[in-house]
From TrEMBL:
GO molecular function list: DNA binding
Domain of life where this protein originates: Eukaryota
Domain Transposase Tc1-like, first and last residues per copy: 1-70
InterPro entries: RNaseH_sf (IPR036397), Tc1-like_DDE_dom (IPR038717), Transposase_5 (IPR052338), Transposase_Tc1-like (IPR002492)
Tc1-like transposase DDE domain sequence ranges: 79-230
UniProt-recorded name of the protein: Transposase
Residues covered by region (Disordered): 444-465
Swiss-Prot/TrEMBL GO biological process terms: DNA integration; DNA transposition
Length: 465
């Protein structure tokens, strides 16, 4: 019960478990609970703080990873990474471990001064690449789009020149509203800067987070006492950061593992269709062309000959004005309960949809919405009616009845994974050879011959095909 509860809700405390067991009639101590969980490989840890990821963020991060999965290292070395960070004078950035004696925790030597909300702080903007750190500046006012563009204008290009970036270097910044403002995008476009498309809620993907952590650790070790000293120390330590710290790995956040259901594409049946584009035909052009072809075909006196002569002239005219075209198209077979009336309703709905899109009038929108509602109701009614009739007919055939109900209640089986059919064929050949070998032993007198059945390679157990 203890392990099951913790696995279901990792935030459960030992006190909660003690109370739950006591209500169930079992009295245990917190130490017993700790020992039990430790034997199961569970230990108490501080929960890591991670960006809140919605499904759209997960999809964007997955798309970003797939697009850049095979990018060579040279491409990443040609990227200038940028970001803003806040450094507090007295705050969590100054946390340090100390050695002290028992009951000496309040001695001034063993404490770090703190104030509410971290006290004073400074906001910094910086950039770097694999070749070294770029410029670091202090943002003294509340940053907006105009100020951000001024910072880029004064510091981005000088940083690129100082770092000796190659031609076509790429600039990275996150999706902060100041970064994605229309004015900022227009400014970057006019300057012909290549901007790396960045997924939202992904600070852990930016390697500059490692640089910020290194800077904050170095600043905390020097223990600045005022804002002026804090700014000076930040600039000094930024310039001292060696190239070995500029690791282009992701930031030191906990890796996030997630599962994204990706449906396998179904292979639709294909067929080749032949058609003529007769929409562009005009009556005068068709008439004159038919007359010209009729003049070139000898005249006959029989009815069949006249019909054949006109058919030939019409066919030649269509071939010249609207030649035959072929196209391979994919199609899906209609469901057995999809009737002609439903098909007509669907076509009518498409016409209403086009009319609504073209006019954007309220009356057409309401008509389209009412039609969609009626179409869904007719669809559900036709499906229910079809299967009710089908089940009623198959009452005397239990196997067919069971198969139909099973197909309705159970989802379709997923498609076979790649190579599954080949694997089943190999096992079929293997067991067929075994059967042939046994038949040979039964029919041929004398000592049993050795089996010549080929052993499947890399297979230890037949699958359940």
């Amino acid at each position: 019960m203890i392990t099951r509860t913790v696995n279901k809700n990792p935030r459960t405390t030992r006190g909660d478990l003690v109370n739950d067991l006591q209500r169930a009639g079992t009295k245990v101590t917190k130490a017993t609970i700790s020992n039990t969980l430790r034997r199961q490989g569970l230990k108490s840890c501080s929960a890591r703080r991670l960006p809140l990821l919605k499904p759209v963020h997960v999809q964007a991060r997955l798309k970003f990873a797939r697009e850049h999965l095979d990018d060579p290292e040279e491409d990443w070395e040609n990227v200038i990474w940028s970001d803003e960070t806040k450094i507090e004078l007295f705050g969590k950035n100054s946390t340090r471990r100390i050695w002290r004696r028992k009951n000496a925790e309040l001695h001034p030597k063993n404490t770090i001064p703190t104030v509410k909300h971290g006290g004073e702080n400074i906001m910094l903007w910086g950039c770097f690449s694999a070749k070294g750190p770029g410029r670091l500046i202090r943002v003294k006012e509340r940053m907006n789009g105009a100020m951000y563009r001024e910072i880029l204008s004064d510091n981005l290009l000088p940083s690129a020149r100082a770092l000796k970036m190659k031609r076509g270097w790429v600039f990275q910044h996150d999706n902060d509203p100041k970064h994605t403002a229309r004015g900022t995008k227009e400014w970057l476009r006019k300057k012909h800067f290549k901007v790396l498309e960045w997924p939202s809620q992904s600070p852990d993907l930016n390697p500059i987070e490692n640089l910020w952590r290194e800077l904050k650790v170095r600043v905390a070790q020097r223990q600045p006492q005022n804002i002026t000293a804090l700014e000076e120390i930040c600039m000094e330590e930024w310039a001292k950061i060696p190239a070995t710290c500029l690791d282009l790995a992701v930031a030191d956040h906990l890796a996030i593992l997630f599962t994204v259901p990706v449906p396998l594409p179904t292979q639709r049946a294909k067929r080749t269709i032949t058609f003529r584009n007769t929409k562009s035909l005009s009556a005068p052009a068709l008439t004159s062309t038919i007359a010209a072809h009729l003049a070139s075909i000898p005249l006959t006196t029989t009815v069949d000959g006249l019909v054949a002569r006109y058919n030939s002239a019409l066919s030649l005219s269509l071939d010249s004005l609207a030649p035959l075209k072929t196209r391979t198209v994919s199609f899906t077979r209609s469901a057995p309960w999809f009737t002609t009336e439903l098909r007509a309703l669907k076509a009518s709905g498409r016409r209403l949809e086009r009319l609504k899109t073209r006019t954007d009038l309220a009356v057409h929108r309401e008509a389209y919405q009412d039609h969609v509602k009626a179409y869904k109701e007719a669809l559900s009614l036709a499906r229910s009616s079809y299967y009710s009739t089908f089940i009623g007919i198959q009452q005397s055939q239990p196997r067919m009845l069971f198969s139909t109900i099973n197909r309705l209640l159970r989802p379709l089986d997923p498609p076979h994974p790649p190579g599954a059919l080949d694997l089943c064929s190999k096992f079929l050949d293997f067991f067929q050879a075994k059967v042939d070998s046994i038949h040979q032993q039964l029919l041929v007198p004398g000592p049993p011959p050795t089996s010549t059945a080929p052993q499947p390679q890399g297979i230890t157990r037949p699958p359940r095909c």
